Amino acid sequence: MFDKYAQSVLYRSRDGLIWTEEEMEAAYYLDLILLISRVIVHLPGEGIGPIFIDCNRVSPYEGSHVNFSGLIEQLPMQNDSGVYGRWVLDDVSYMNMALRIAWVNIQAGQVKLIQKVATWTSTTGIQMESGYSALTNNNGVKKYIIVTVVQPPFMMKTVVDNTTVYYGYCKDLIDKIKDILKFEYELYEAPDGLYGTLNDNGTWNGMVNELIKGNADIGVADLSVMAERESAVDFTVPYYDLVGIKILMKAPKFEYTLLKFAAVLEPPVWWCFAAAYFLTGTR
User: Which DSSP category does 83 fall into?
Assistant: First the structure.
């Protein structure tokens, strides 16, 4: 009765699986106590009985109420699979527990799927389940929650088949980073549509507030780097610098000849040089 009650307390509603370190430690000592109790109950002969000691007796107690030889013999006979595992009684003596290897799908901090892929024991090693050949290519993909603000041309959106689709410079940038670092992300807009300013009461709004509260892991937008914002969140190296408004014009085409040096001065100036040479250079 005690055996079944103790196991039910550990199992609770978890299908007999041990999940935490505390439960594992409790299961180990539970199996040890149950093994000893079963051995004591099934000891041959007198087994272990109460010891009556006379306080007026000076000499030490003589005799033993413990059948040690029977105790050793009963150990393998009462060795049953418990909560933690089955005792292996040899020169080493250890618990032959079984470990379940599972593929766990976690989304937004919540466990969505637990799928058993293999079982391990000290005697059989890893035994794969049907449909799995090896414990490879099962690496989890990190997923980030990204907050943004719609501001053309950095971030824009449209609706396609009742689904909001984002596009723009920042969207292309985060997609490129995702392809390199191999992660997934979920994009959403700041509830108030603001970048983030410090209010008079010391609280933040906009994207900065979403990052501080932990609602988002990353913020992607044309967000200016300011001293107040840097005290609240971390910035990457700026990827865009506003350098002012400029006027663009088509570059002129130039013809290159051996007499290009003559274009430095106007023709009348060259005629003046030639006249001065002939008037002052001849005798």
Answer: S
Nearest-10 Cα torsion for 254, 255, 260, 263: -60
Number of H helices, E strands in the chain: 7, 10
Which tokens go with 24?
A: 């594992």
- Distance separating alpha carbons of residues 89 and 75, to the nearest angstrom: 8
**SS3 label, residue 76:** helix
Q: For residue 158, give Cα distances in angstroms to 138, 186, 237, 254, 267.
A: 35, 16, 29, 47, 63
* 188 bridge partner residues: 147
Three-state DSSP at 15 gives coil
Separation between Cα atoms, residue 37 and residue 274, nearest integer Å: 127
pLDDT tens, position by position, 55-96 = 666 555 555 455 555 666 666 666 666 666 666 666 555 556
pLDDT, tens only, 249-281: 888 887 777 777 777 788 888 888 888 888 786
Q: Do 84 and 28 touch, CB atoms closer than 8 A? A: yes
